[in-house]
Design brief:
Helix 1 runs antiparallel to helix 2. The protein folds into 2 domains: 61 residues; 33 residues, no CATH class. It is mostly helical. It has a two-stranded antiparallel ribbon.
Amino acid sequence: MARLSSIESAKRIRRRVDAKKAQRAKLKAIINDKTLPLEERFAVQLKLSALPRTSSFTRIRNRCMVTGRARGVYRKFNISRIMLREMAAEGLVPGVRKASW
């Protein structure tokens, strides 16, 4: 099980990314608008860089929703490979069953 602090930190980063998503998108649209003068776009670039680093989407780390494990997380289920195997064997994951032949 992951440390509780790292799980809470990941949740905090996700909340901050969601809160700043619209603001970041608006600033990026202005930056990418080639019809605006270069000075105005540069000023907006400075505003974008002044935003908190943890509000960037690339700061999000996928973690298992059950254990908080950061590696081997399946995006489709949002759980780690270990928990997926255990839960599939118990029949807790809909549409997934253990293969046997």
